């Protein structure tokens, strides 16, 4: 009898608590809120509970909260941070977008490597953002090592702010995701040069964990329903990442190197 | 305690002002509160909006430190006492000015006023929302101390101002009240003075504009009152005079009414008597006073009262005066006949007030009238007897005289010795004189007795001239005198007048002219004297001669009865001397005048100026008798060239006389009574004219004429009445029955011959005209009208005789092209020649050939087989071909040809006249369709048809 009362009270308390979805701060809080409004409204309808969309000031802050595993019931984040959330906080990957993430390095002129002074000043949004890490990896492959040929500076700001930094010659190159580049105004685009445009890498990952009254299977069912729903289609049109793709539990295994790098940065190289 | 007006005014005004000021102060405080309330809300709203904007991003990022710092910055603003940020799960995530451990104050959204006044703080909460997602809420506490302080300050100021205003008002109102009361007292004094009759009282209320106006108005009123009083006094005087006058007039009218012997009364619209005069009171048997207020039902028996009431109602309904005779009984039982005139009378507004009645006793007058009517009837009877006597006398005198004259005329045609001839001449002369004398005396006696009755009929001027010329032509020719009869162009063609009397006058004048003219000319000229309007004119009939003429002194006595120009004239020329006297009296009766101009030895001009009614002004040209047409095909029945005259008379001597006069020119048939005459006339074509005596036993001439004119086979025969009765009544009656003319006994051979000849000519002309209307003017064969009438007759004959009937419908081939190329003149020639050829081909008299219309012809053959009909058709084709009329534009031959459609109806066929024609026409169109210049035939048996083409 007591157990039943506890169960009822628990369910009642779950019913009153909102479902919280954490989204990596790949853009401003307002844009994140707007672009994921369809996800929020669909899940509210699906679970009959209120859903809160939250983010964090930075990737590092976000990753830290994810890895603690208490702040969010479901997270949508970059692949490297998703790997960490899966293995540290036991979130399980559910699905991703079919269109992969592409990274770009912008310069003012094509001959930045010959004309600029060394070490080259390169600006990025966050040391553990997927774009920053993949661009840095490419630059290293090109022989441009951090601390020698390149000095990195990280800005917690929007992509157009990074472009302004480049144009104002406060930096020689800037790293940003391809979707963020596409959002730049034509005027700004005309003043910058695409130095590097990466091939598509894995996209943002939906992860969830059991708790707050929702089982993993319910999460799976809810997202499958979202994919087929008008809200899902509207979300894709807004975010322009083509479609959804279901992920297996081991789908993120290939990301271990970049995840490790991210983890190390989180541990010791916090900006 | 009684208060003066000033104090009442002052108290009431202060009360009203105090109430108004209280309301004003209360309203101001309320408006201030509302304004501050609204401002506080707006301020809070602005702060909340700012806070929301600032808090969204850190809230989404769960950056609680930033949220805390934003709250701290915001709390520095004036009047904010505390700020608390509350998460979505109602936990405080940041706060300023509020202990986190303390419970948050309750929110009373609608209790702003009461709560705030008590705690000097207003608590509210706003949600932090983004894209529909509630991130949390912020509790804000605002101090309302400034609001309460402002309201209290406002209240104090308002009360102070109101008090000052009340005091000032009291002083001013008191002063004004005193001033007003003073002027009211002056006005009261002035009004009292006027009431006492001091109309000259005037006021002076000082120099102020308002009081001056008041005084002026009062003075004007006083002036008006003074004038009205004077006018009223004058009016009273006038009214007194008027009343005296009315009284005088009333007495006069009353005396007048009383003195009138007629009965006079007046009632209202409900029939209640309002007054009457003594004769009426006498009739009713009551006094005048008793009658007033009574109705007819109170004074007369129910029937009489109802009669009066109905008359009154009718008069009032129509609002028009009425007059009727009423028989009423006096109280003493005396019955009188009253002629009552009733008329409506109206008030000043024109509304009906009642009726006025004036009754006159017409008992004696009515009696006299009835006696007069009896006397008139007696006189009329006597007059009728006299007229009948005169008529009978006329008949009785003329019948033997007619025999004498007739026998004399006949005797002159027998071989006589010279002495016998001389005796006979004197006998004839004496009998003629006697005849004229009898006629003139009878006429004169009728005129003297005033028995001349005018019978107005239409008179054709040209026909009248022609008739008169015909009457005198022979006499003139015998004497070698030229007749010149004519009328001016502006004389109307048709007038309405008494034709008999006009003829009698002109006849007399012309007779005289011929009598007194030995050589030269006698003329009758009709002229237009004047034209009064389109319907009335005066004509001038001038009878001129080149005879012996008269001296002026003889002219004066010319129109005296039994007088001639001089005695020698009577001796030489004979006559009664009554003729011109009769003429002048007749002219007077007709509204005309007789005049004369004469020069002895050179001749005379007698003029009749006669007013007439114009029926038609335009002169139609005289119809010319057309040249008779010779017809070789069937034509109307020919008649004997010598017309036949039927003489109907019961007196053998009359029959003998008339037949002797006419036998040289006409065939004579005789009937001694009406029935025999009708039998003879019924034989078609047996009689061309009937001379009919009026006075016959069993069936008189009028009855015979009536029967003749009713019968369609005899009605065309002209009838000339032969009578010794020469009164206009008899003649007019005869004309109305359809007689063409009349001859009076004793017979004047010339008149008889002229009259008969004229009627025979008219009949011939009419028949010729009728005949001409049945023939086509171009081709000289029967036209469509004649065909329609004859075809109907032939069709019925065929049915009756149970024989066949064939219709041959013909059309000249390509006739339109012929017309178009050779011209219409050639076309007409073609039609004439084709018609002539067709006549050659139709042999039997019973066959009918006619022009059906345009270039179409039709032949009807009775009692014929289809072979016979086709033979005739071929003969028709051949006859036309043999004309060899070139037709270059014909598509079927080089000359003019025919197409013929034949429809033959055998005895048992049910085809109607119209259907047979249609069948023939259809056959014709088949012939045309098959190439023209051919015959197509159809035979119709009972319900079957056989056909072929040739």
Largest sheet geometry of chain B: 7 strands, mixed
> What overall geometry of chain B do the principal axes of the alpha carbons give?
flat
| Poorly predicted runs of chain A | 1-14
Largest interface between protein chains, with number of residues from each side: A-B, 23 and 14 residues
Large-scale geometry of chain A? globular
Biggest β-sheet description of chain A: 6 strands, mixed
Beta-strand residue fraction of chain A? 15-25%
Task: Tell me the Rg of chain B in angstroms.
Answer: 63 Å
Characteristics:
heterodimer; A: 271 residues; alpha/beta; six-stranded mixed sheet; five-stranded mixed sheet; 13 helices; 46% helix; B: 950 residues; alpha+beta; seven-stranded mixed sheet; 26 helices
SSE layout:
The complex is a heterodimer of chains A (271) and B (950).
Chain A: H1 2-16, E1 19-23, H2 29-35, H3 37-47, E2 51-54, H4 59-68, E3 74-77, H5 79-89, E4 92-97, E5 103-107, H6 112-115, E6 120-124, H7 130-141, E7 150-154, H8 159-167, E8 173-177, H9 178-182, H10 186-189, E9 193-197, E10 205-208, H11 216-228, H12 230-239, E11 244-246, H13 256-268
Parallel strand pairs in A: 1-2, 1-3, 6-7, 6-8
Antiparallel strand pairs in A: 3-10, 4-10, 4-11, 5-8, 5-9
Helix pairs in contact in A: 3-12, 4-5, 5-13, 11-12
Chain B: H1 5-60, H2 64-75, E1 80-87, E2 92-96, H3 112-119, E3 121-130, E4 133-143, H4 145-195, H5 209-259, E5 263-268, E6 273-276, H6 278-284, H7 288-291, H8 296-299, H9 302-318, E7 322-329, E8 335-346, E9 352-361, H10 363-412, H11 418-448, E10 456-460, H12 461-479, E11 482-487, E12 494-498, H13 499-515, E13 521-531, E14 536-545, H14 552-556, H15 567-573, H16 579-589, E15 593-599, E16 603-616, E17 644-648, H17 652-662, E18 667-671, H18 674-682, E19 689-693, H19 701-710, E20 719-723, H20 728-736, E21 741-744, H21 749-772, H22 784-801, E22 805-812, H23 815-822, H24 824-841, E23 848-853, E24 856-862, H25 866-881, E25 898-905, H26 913-929, E26 935-940, E27 945-949
Parallel strand pairs in B: 11-13, 17-18, 17-19, 19-20, 20-21, 25-26
Antiparallel strand pairs in B: 1-2, 1-4, 3-4, 5-6, 5-9, 7-8, 8-9, 10-12, 12-16, 13-14, 14-16, 15-16, 22-24, 22-25, 23-24, 26-27
Helix pairs in contact in B: 1-2, 1-4, 4-5, 10-11, 10-17, 11-16, 12-13, 12-21, 13-16, 18-19, 23-24, 24-25
């Amino acid at each position: 009898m007591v157990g039943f009362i506890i169960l009822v009270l628990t369910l009642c308390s779950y019913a009153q608590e909102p479902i919280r979805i954490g989204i990596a701060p790949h853009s401003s809080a307002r844009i994140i809120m707007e672009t994921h409004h369809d996800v929020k409204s669909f899940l509210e309808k699906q679970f009959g509970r209120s859903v809160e969309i939250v983010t964090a000031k930075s990737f590092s802050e976000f990753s830290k909260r994810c890895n603690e595993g208490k702040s969010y019931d479901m997270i949508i984040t970059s692949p490297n941070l998703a790997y960490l959330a899966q293995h540290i906080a036991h979130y399980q990957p559910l699905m991703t977008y079919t269109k992969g993430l592409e990274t770009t390095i912008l310069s003012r002129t094509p001959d930045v490597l010959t004309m600029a002074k060394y070490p080259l000043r390169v600006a990025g949004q966050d040391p553990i953002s997927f774009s920053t890490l993949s661009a840095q990896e490419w630059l290293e492959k090109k022989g441009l090592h951090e601390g020698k040929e390149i000095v990195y500076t990280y800005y917690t700001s929007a992509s157009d702010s990074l472009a302004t930094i480049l144009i104002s010659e406060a930096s020689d190159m800037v790293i940003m995701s391809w979707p963020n580049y596409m959002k730049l105004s034509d005027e700004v685009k005309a003043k910058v040069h695409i130095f590097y445009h990466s091939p598509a890498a894995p996209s943002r990952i939906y992860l969830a964990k059991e708790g707050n009254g929702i089982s993993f299977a319910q999460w799976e069912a809810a997202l499958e329903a979202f994919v087929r729903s008008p809200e899902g289609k509207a979300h894709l049109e807004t975010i322009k990442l083509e479609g959804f793709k279901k992920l297996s539990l081991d789908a993120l295994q290939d990301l271990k190197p970049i995840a490790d790098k991210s983890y190390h940065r989180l541990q010791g190289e916090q900006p | 305690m009684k208060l003066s007006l000033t104090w009442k005014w002052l108290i009431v005004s202060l009360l009203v002002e105090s109430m108004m000021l209280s309301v004003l102060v209360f309203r101001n405080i309320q408006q201030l509160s509302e304004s501050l309330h609204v401002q506080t809300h707006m301020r809070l709203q602005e702060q909340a909006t700012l806070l929301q904007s600032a808090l969204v991003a850190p809230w989404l990022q769960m950056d609680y430190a930033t949220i805390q710092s934003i709250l701290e910055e915001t709390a520095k603003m004036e009047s904010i006492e505390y700020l608390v940020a509350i998460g979505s799960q109602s936990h405080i995530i940041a706060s300023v000015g509020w202990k986190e451990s303390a419970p948050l104050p309750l929110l009373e959204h609608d209790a702003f006023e009461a709560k705030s006044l008590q705690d000097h703080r207003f608590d509210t909460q706003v949600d932090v929302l983004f894209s529909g997602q509630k991130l949390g809420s912020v509790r804000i506490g605002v101090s309302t101390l400034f609001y309460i302080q402002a309201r209290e300050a406002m209240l104090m100021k308002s009360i102070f101002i109101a008090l000052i205003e009340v005091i000032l008002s009291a002083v001013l109102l008191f002063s004004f009240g005193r001033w007003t009361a003073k002027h009211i007292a002056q006005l009261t004094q002035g009004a009292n003075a006027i009431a006492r009759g001091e109309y000259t009282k005037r006021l002076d209320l000082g120099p102020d504009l308002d009081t001056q106006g008041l005084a002026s108005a009062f003075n004007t009123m006083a002036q008006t009152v003074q004038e009205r009083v004077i006018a009223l006094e004058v009016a009273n005087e006038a009214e007194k005079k008027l009343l005296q006058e009315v009284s005088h007039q009333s007495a006069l009218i009353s005396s007048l009414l009383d003195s009138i012997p007629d009965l006079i009364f007046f009632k209202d619209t409900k029939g209640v008597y309002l007054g009457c005069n003594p004769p009426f009171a006498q009739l009713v048997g009551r006094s005048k006073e008793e009658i007033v207020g009574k109705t007819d039902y109170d004074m007369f028996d129910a029937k009489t009262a109802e009669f009066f009431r109905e008359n009154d109602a009718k008069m009032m309904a129509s609002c028009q005066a009425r007059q009727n005779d009423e028989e009423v009984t006096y109280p003493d039982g005396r019955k009188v006949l009253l002629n009552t005139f009733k008329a409506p009378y109206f008030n000043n507004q024109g509304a009906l007030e009642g009726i006025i009645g004036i009754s006159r006793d017409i008992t004696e007058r009515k009696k006299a009238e009835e006696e007069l009517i009896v006397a008139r009837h007696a006189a009329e009877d006597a007059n009728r007897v006299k007229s009948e006597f005169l008529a009978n006398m006329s008949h009785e005198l003329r019948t033997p005289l007619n025999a004498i004259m007739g026998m004399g005329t006949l005797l002159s045609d027998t071989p006589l010795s010279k002495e016998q001839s001389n005796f006979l001449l004197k006998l004839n002369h004496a009998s003629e004189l006697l005849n004229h004398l009898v006629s003139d005396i009878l006429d004169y006696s009728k005129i003297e007795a005033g028995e001349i009755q005018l019978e107005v009929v239409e008179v054709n001027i040209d026909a009248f001239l022609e008739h008169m010329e015909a009457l005198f032509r022979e006499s003139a020719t015998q004497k070698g005198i030229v007749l010149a009869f004519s009328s001016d162009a502006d004389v109307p063609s048709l007038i309405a007048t008494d034709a008999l009397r006009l003829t009698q006058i002109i006849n007399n004048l012309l007779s005289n002219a011929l009598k007194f003219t030995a050589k030269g000319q006698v003329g009758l000229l009709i002229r237009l004297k004047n034209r009064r309007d389109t319907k009335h004119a005066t004509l001038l009939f001038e009878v001129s001669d080149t005879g012996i003429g008269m001296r002026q002194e003889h002219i004066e006595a010319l129109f005296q009865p039994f007088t001639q120009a001089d005695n020698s004239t009577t001796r030489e020329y004979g006559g009664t001397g009554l003729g011109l006297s009769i003429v002048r009296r007749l002219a007077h009766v007709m509204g005309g005048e007789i005049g004369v101009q004469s020069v002895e030895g050179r001749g005379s001009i007698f003029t009749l100026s006669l007013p007439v009614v114009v029926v038609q002004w335009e002169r139609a040209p005289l119809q010319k008798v057309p040249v008779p047409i010779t017809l070789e095909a069937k034509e109307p029945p020919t008649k004997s060239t010598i017309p036949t005259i039927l003489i109907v008379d019961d007196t053998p001597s009359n029959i003998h006389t008339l037949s002797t006069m006419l036998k040289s020119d006409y065939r004579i048939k005789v009937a001694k009574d009406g029935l025999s005459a009708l039998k003879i006339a019924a034989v078609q074509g047996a009689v061309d004219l009937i001379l009919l005596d009026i006075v016959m036993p069993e069936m008189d001439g009028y009855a015979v004429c009536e029967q003749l004119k009713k019968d369609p086979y005899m009605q065309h025969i002209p009838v000339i009445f032969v009578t010794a009765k020469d009164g206009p009544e008899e003649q007019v009656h005869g004309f109305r029955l359809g007689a063409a003319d009349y001859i009076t006994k004793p017979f004047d051979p010339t008149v008889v011959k002229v009259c008969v000849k004229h009627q025979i000519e008219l009949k011939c002309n009419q028949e010729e005209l009728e005949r001409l209307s049945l023939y086509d003017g171009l081709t000289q064969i029967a036209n469509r009208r004649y065909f329609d009438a004859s075809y109907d007759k032939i069709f019925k004959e065929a049915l009756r005789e149970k024989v066949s009937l064939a219709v041959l419908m013909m059309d000249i081939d390509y006739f339109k092209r012929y017309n178009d190329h050779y011209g219409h003149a050639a076309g007409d020639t073609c039609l004439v020649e084709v018609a002539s050829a067709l006549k050659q081909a139709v042999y039997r008299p019973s066959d009918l050939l006619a022009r059906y219309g345009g270039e179409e012809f039709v032949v009807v053959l009775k009692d014929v087989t289809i072979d016979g009909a086709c033979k005739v058709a071929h003969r028709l084709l051949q006859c036309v071909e043999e004309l060899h009329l070139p037709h270059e534009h014909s598509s079927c031959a080089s000359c003019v040809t025919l197409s013929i459609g034949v429809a033959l109806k055998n005895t048992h066929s049910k085809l109607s006249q119209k259907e047979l024609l249609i069948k023939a026409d259809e056959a014709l169109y088949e012939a045309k369709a098959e190439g023209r210049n051919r015959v197509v035939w159809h035979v119709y048996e009972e319900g079957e048809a056989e056909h072929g083409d040739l």
